[in-house]
Design goal:
The structure is a single chain. The protein is α+β, with helices and mostly antiparallel strands. The chain is built from 4 helices and 3 strands. The protein has a 3-stranded antiparallel beta sheet. Strand 2 and strand 3 form a beta hairpin. 1% of the residues are buried.
Length: 137
């Protein structure tokens, strides 16, 4: 549609087709204060969670399908929505979450970076707990 209206050209379309998302995201929820134990625990679980839940995954053997292809059924958190994948397509979706050789899966920026943690430790301030503030509208 954008190409038909002359808003973008073939070079932009080709660029977009091969663009890989970096995975970078920003937390834009409500403030999580240091005394909010449940909020901090939920945030920590979110940060280190796996990219999928094994409890929501159902394997269907090839012998149990009409087309003879093994399948994986993945249900949403509430169980209302499910998506069926061919087994190899499911694996292809999963391997996109494996970092390349030499790359890190978890990175610490800002307050939690190695440099700032070291500076706080030298200053004797490494036991302070920050608050996560929502500065949006």
């Amino acid at each position: 549609m954008l190409k038909a209206e002359g808003k973008i050209g073939d070079a932009v379309i080709e660029n977009m087709l091969y663009w890989c998302h970096s995975g970078f995201n920003v937390y834009c929820g409500p403030t999580i204060w240091p005394n909010n134990d449940q909020g901090l625990e939920d945030l920590a679980r979110y940060i280190i969670r796996a990219c999928f839940s094994q409890e929501r995954m159902t394997d269907v053997a090839a012998s149990d399908t009409l087309d003879g292809q093994a399948k994986v059924i993945y249900r949403s958190k509430g169980g209302r929505i499910s998506k069926t994948f061919q087994a190899l397509d499911w694996l292809a979706q999963l391997v996109t979450h494996i970092p390349n050789k030499g790359k890190q899966m978890v990175r610490y920026y800002g307050y939690y970076s190695n440099k700032l943690r070291g500076m706080r430790k030298k200053a004797g301030m490494d036991d302070q707990v920050p608050a996560f503030l929502f500065l949006g509208g």
